[in-house]
Design brief:
This protein is α+β, with helices and mostly antiparallel strands. The chain contains three helices and four strands. It has a four-stranded antiparallel beta sheet.
Length: 124
């Protein structure tokens, strides 16, 4: 009986040790934020009329509010009368998103604008 008890205690000790090690690893990863996505990285979708040159029409606003931006997709809508622009942007810290969107609305003629958290490529 003493042999079975000692073996059982060894398993409990080993399981406890593994639990502590895994917990420490999870705690360390949560503190160094190794897998966190920048919360300022977002998807920006803007509708613009077909008669506007969208290539640089938002550059001034982006330079004011955005650290990085990249035009990912341009697609036509409404039988070609509108372009929908999809940007991946990283906002500067401590900016007012409402002012950013308001300035974009002035440029695109108050058409639809959507600002959302970054999505993976399959959801765009």
């Amino acid at each position: 009986m003493t042999i079975g008890l000692a073996t059982g205690m060894g398993h409990i000790f080993f399981a406890s040790l593994i639990t502590v090690i895994v917990s420490l690893v999870i705690f360390i990863f949560s503190k160094i934020k190794l897998f966190d996505v920048d919360s300022n990285t977002k998807i920006l979708k803007i509708l613009v009329p077909e008669n506007l040159d969208y290539t640089d029409m938002f550059d001034e606003i982006f330079n004011k509010y955005v650290k990085e931006y990249k035009l990912q997709l341009v697609k036509t809508m409404n039988m070609g009368s509108l372009f929908e622009l999809h940007y991946v942007i990283t906002l500067k810290s401590d900016i007012n998103e409402k002012k950013f969107i308001d300035e974009l609305r002035v440029r695109n003629g108050n058409l639809k604008i959507m600002l959302s958290h970054e999505l993976d490529g399959s959801e765009m």
